[in-house]
C-alpha cells in the first residue's frame, strides 16, 4: 500500500511516491495545473493513484513560522479534502515549513543548475514531505 506525497502550489503539484513498504520516497513528476480549477489535475492524479495503488496521500501543509495557518495552508486543507472526496483515499496534512528551501539547498549542493532546479524543485519538496511523514511512522 503506497503513499503519495504532494507539494501543492498555485501552478504546480510536486509528486513523490513511497515504496510498497513505506520506507522511502522517490520523486515522480510535477503536474502543471490551475489551482482555481481542480479538474486540471484530476486525470494525472487519478492515473498515478491507480497505477501505483495509492491508499494514502500526504499533502504539504505550509504553516506560517509562528504556527498559524495562512492562505496557502487553507488551500492545502481544501486540496486534501478534495483528494479524500474524489479519490476515496486518506489524506494527511504534513507540516512542510522550510521544505522548499531545504530542497533548494540539496539541489544547490549537488551543483544542479538554476534552470534544472526550477524543473525539479516541487518534486524534490514532495519527496521531503513524504519522507518526513514516513520517517515519523517508523
Q: Can you characterise this structure?
A:
The chain is of the alpha/beta class. It has one domain: YqgF/RNase H-like domain (Nucleotidyltransferase, domain 5), CATH 3.30.420. It is built from four helices and five strands, in the order βββαβαβαα. Strands 3-2-1-4-5 form a five-stranded mixed sheet, sandwiched between helices. The two termini are 15 Å apart.
Features:
EC 3.1.-.-, RNaseH-like_sf, alpha/beta, Nucleotidyltransferase, domain 5, 138 residues, 4 helices, hydrolase activity, acting on ester bonds
Q: Biggest sheet: strands side by side, in what order?
A: 3-2-1-4-5
Query: Could you say how many structural domains there are in total?
Result: 1
Which residues sit in consecutive blocks of at least 5 with pLDDT less than 50? none
Task: Write down the CATH class.
Answer: Alpha Beta
Radius of gyration: 14 Å
Content of β-strand:
25-35%
What is the first-to-last residue Cα distance? 15 Å
* CATH homologous superfamily caption: YqgF/RNase H-like domain
Question: How many strand elements?
Answer: 5
Arithmetic mean of pLDDT = 91
Bin the helical content. Answer: 40-55%
Shape verdict: globular
Q: Main β-sheet: number of strands, strand sense, barrel status?
A: 5 strands, mixed
**Helix and strand composition category:** alpha/beta
Order of helices and strands: EEEHEHEHH
| Total DSSP helices | 4
Known CATH architecture: 2-Layer Sandwich
CATH fold topology: Nucleotidyltransferase, domain 5
Amino acid at each position: 500500500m503506497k503513499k503519495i506525497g504532494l507539494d501543492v502550489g498555485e501552478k504546480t503539484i510536486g509528486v513523490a511516491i513511497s515504496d510498497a513498504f513505506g520506507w522511502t520516497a522517490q520523486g515522480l513528476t510535477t503536474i502543471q495545473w490551475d489551482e482555481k480549477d481542480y479538474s486540471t489535475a484530476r486525470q494525472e492524479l487519478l492515473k498515478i493513484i491507480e497505477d501505483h495503488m495509492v491508499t494514502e496521500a500526504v499533502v504539504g501543509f505550509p504553516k506560517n513560522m509562528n504556527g498559524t495557518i495562512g492562505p496557502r495552508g487553507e488551500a492545502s486543507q481544501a486540496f486534501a479534502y478534495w483528494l479524500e472526496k474524489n479519490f476515496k483515499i486518506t489524506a494527511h496534512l504534513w507540516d512542510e515549513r522550510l521544505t522548499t528551501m531545504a530542497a533548494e539547498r540539496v539541489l544547490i549542493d549537488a551543483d544542479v543548475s538554476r534552470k534544472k532546479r526550477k524543473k525539479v524543485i516541487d518534486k524534490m519538496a514532495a519527496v521531503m514531505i513524504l519522507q518526513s511523514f514516513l520517517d515519523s511512522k517508523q
